[in-house]
Design goal:
By secondary structure, this protein is mostly beta strands. The chain is built from one helix and 35 strands.
Length: 446
Amino acid sequence: MSLKFTPVVALLIFLSPPLLHSMAAAQVEEHPQQSQHSQLKDSPKAATPVIDDFGPEKISINSVLELRGYRLKPSSINTRVFFLQNGNTYLARTGGGSWATNDENNGRQTLEVIVPEEVVLGPSQVVVEINGLRSVPATVTIVDWILPEVQRIVPASGSPGTDVLLTCYGFHIYDLIELTDAAGKVTSFESGGSSSDSSFKVPNDAPEGPLKIRIGNRKYGNNQFTEPVIFQVTNDPLPLDLALSWMTPVAPGQLLELSVWSTDPLKRSELTEIAFKQADRAIVVSTTYPKHLRVVVPKALAPGNVQLQTRTWRNGLPSVWSAEGPFQLSEKLVPPSIQAIRLEKGRWVQLSPGPEKPESFSATAGDVLVINGDFRVADAKKIKVTLFRSGESIDLDVIEPDLKTEWTGEIVVRLPETLEKGDWRMLMANLDDGTQADLPVVIRIK
């Protein structure tokens, strides 16, 4: 899945190649542990890990189990997971997970766990242990090994080299993904370490036609494979598949940042168009550049529901229109959203809300700052950046990026060489619509 990068979303770690993992919780029955978070929040044992949900509900050996809850610490080397069954204790491998930026103690987290091969059929308890503190056990059910269930492939068609996201229910750590192209050539590889997702690249030599995708396992399953799903290999222009739930609503007249499941249709696009449908009429507009994911919402539209479609052009020919998808337009203008800051050669400092958000950011006069966010402008020159404190204000020059490449939403500014020491605030103003936002930390000049 290909979405606009921003360094402040929940952090993800996997044994598999990089892919974007769905944060939507599976629908499983509630467990008694769900009330623990509120009970422990202010107690002396507030560092105790809490499991309040998991998925899949039924697992087998080598399944990837996703634990959900609080203080699971997927990035910590001190996190250990045990399966307790019939008087035996089995240490399980962990494969990463996700956590809320700037709120590692009270924000929701996930932890990927590999079911040990030593467990047997029947109920088993799972506990997370960190620095000697153990969670209340969660009870899982161990069943016979079964093939995963393929739920979705995104996109469903594309050219050779396209990145494809395969979503399944019940992946195992050593599942095998097998690709058979239209000429009968077979390629296979391991699925990786996620409980629900795997990604792959369509072979560069794949001929046009159906690419069959099956899932099996070298060690288990008696050489069984799932029924094939089809990815259509084509060199024709294709529409963008919008990830609408990831897109921030804006008001008519504002610039909308698109999120898509794959950017491959953009790579050779000569023109990228978005159709806004509302009240029995359609308004078609093009993105700011053919390979960009930004489009100005027509001012003629009203706030509320609108249907979106996309298409791209190549060699003077259009793709088909994508399926319609619902999107909500805001009544009020949406201000810039500032999400992270770093020095030119430094690490990102996350600015999302939370008890661990820093109160200040240190720099020296003359430093180059990089600021990441959703500024709702076509290019960086449409943002005015001002440093201010009591009785003083300084406008900063924005360093222009190459507009013909994909602008990632980073503003680059240089602090004046003569900037006085002390605490400064920073204001980011959108010159197109007049909205503005403060950088949510103090700039501390040393």
